[in-house]
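As a warm-up, study this chain.
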Amino acid sequence: MSGVINVMLVDDHAVVRMGFKLLLEAAPDVKVVAEAESGEQGVKLYGEFHPDVVVMDITMPGIGGMEAIERIMAKDPSARILVLSAHEDSVHPKRVLNAGALGYLTKRSAPEELIKAIRMVAARKMYLEANIAQQMALQQLSGEKNPVDVLSAREFEVFMALALGKSTNEIAETLCLSPRTIGTHLYNIKQKLNAGNQAEIALIAMRSGLIEP
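Now compare it with the structure written out below.
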């Protein structure tokens, strides 16, 4: 790698991407080489540009960031991905790190922290925002488990979509799966979480700090 870190931004908000691009290009060693507005486009452009670091949002229309991380990692296990998300819970960071991302930062962190995180991830070092790392450590120490920890990666994706009010058909279309497969995931989610319906699933997501009340 040359002295410059080539970055790809993946976020569905053009204004957000523009802001981050201006911010990053103020750093002498960072260059934004590609921008994607969806997980699907991020996966496609990764294959074209092979950036040093992918800065990825996770809540986007379409396949979303979690699935995009898995697809990029499947293509290139050495990919370096930094997640930049609005989620401030400890469940999402754990999930993205398990999926292969190297870092997690919330969108309210300071600009210089984003540049520092990109440099760390480019050097293949893990980077976790301090308060997220603290939350995760405290959870581990107390042995406190979040109820959604029992869900598989795919079930978690379906769970989040259901919690946000999406229908089985909408989720099937987004994830390129059959409604029947989504129905099976829904059945398993209800069993694992002891939830009777979609409203109860949304309530569990709220209590877990995954969606706003």
